[in-house]
Design brief:
Mean pLDDT: 96
Shape: globular
Helix content: 10-25%
CATH topology of the largest domain: Rossmann fold
Radius of gyration: 17 Å
Order of helices and strands: EEHEEEHEEHEHEEHEHEEEHE
CATH class of the largest domain: Alpha Beta
Distance between the termini: 30 Å
Number of helices: 7
Largest sheet: 7 strands, mixed
Number of domains: 3
Strand order of the largest sheet: 10-9-8-7-11-12-15
Structural class: alpha/beta
CATH superfamily of the largest domain: Nucleotide-binding domain of ferredoxin-NADP reductase (FNR) module
Low-confidence stretches: none
Oligomer: single chain
Length: about 250
């Protein structure tokens, strides 16, 4: 159940040039958090709107989140130090429905972190496909290797791992017929391509959508997205409240 927590920072680590990993300590927040949910973090007293950031991982009494510096709010957050406190509203949103069978997790760029929590929570060891622009953008590979049976890394420029998109190794895995579900998070076009492949091979797919958010609790309607009803009519849902995770076949891409 969502609540406001005041959480002590116990680690702030720079992963790449603009990507940071912060771990906070709060047992109640950790116990209530699930894979695919997100936190709404207050970034300084001068900024009214909180910043939504996916949960990357949870331990017994700690919660980790990874984010990219994109503006003044996330810049403020990146400069916090150990021992300081963060005002966090969460956990928010509906997360992934993890299957009993074999699972593929697909992450792209800063959409990669929430896949770690999902992979670590899977009932069987998951297979991970992680896509990045280039080698200097790669994050969390060792962490994925510690919880997954296999990890594939792709880069757009071929500087490390498989040259090309995440769909290249994904299609080979789907052809095997061994996997029951695919879950993903990342850039819109990447997730559409993942969803299209899953539809082609008849494998259920869940996607985590990214939209600008205001309140984080469904009141302001800033994060509205189009989804299909059972009769193929279109309705508008709220990513923060009805998602951020949706069945891919419901999304109007």
């Amino acid at each position: 159940m969502a609540d406001i927590f005041f959480c002590e920072i116990i680690e702030n680590k720079e992963l790449t040039d603009a990507v940071y990993s912060i771990t906070v300590k709060n047992r109640n927040l950790a116990l209530s958090s699930g894979p695919g949910q997100f936190l709404h973090i207050k970034c300084g007293e001068a900024r009214l709107l909180r910043r939504p950031i996916s949960i990357c991982n949870v331990r017994k009494d700690t919660v980790n989140f990874v984010f990219e510096v994109k503006g003044e709010g996330t810049k403020w957050l990146s400069r916090r130090t150990n021992g300081q406190s963060l005002n966090i509203l969460g956990p928010l949103g509906n997360g992934y429905n993890l299957p009993d069978g074999k699972l593929i997790v697909v992450g792209g760029g800063v959409g990669t972190p929430p896949m770690l929590f999902a992979a670590g929570s899977a009932k069987q060891k998951a297979t991970a496909i992680l896509g990045f622009r280039s080698a200097d953008r790669i994050i969390l590979v060792d962490e994925f290797k510690s919880v997954c049976s296999k990890v594939y890394v792709t880069t757009d420029d071929g500087s490390e791992g498989i040259h090309g998109a995440v769909t290249k190794p994904l299609e080979e895995l789907l052809k095997s017929g061994q996997y029951q579900t695919v879950i993903s998070c990342g850039q819109h076009l990447m997730q559409k391509a993942v969803a299209d492949l899953c539809e082609l091979y008849g494998v259920p797919c869940q996607v985590s959508l990214e939209e600008r958010m205001g309140c984080g609790i469904g009141a302001c309607l800033v994060c509205a997205c189009a989804v299909k009803n059972n009769d193929d009519s279109i309705k508008m849902n709220r990513v923060c409240l009805d998602g951020p995770v949706f069945n891919a076949n419901e999304v109007v891409w």
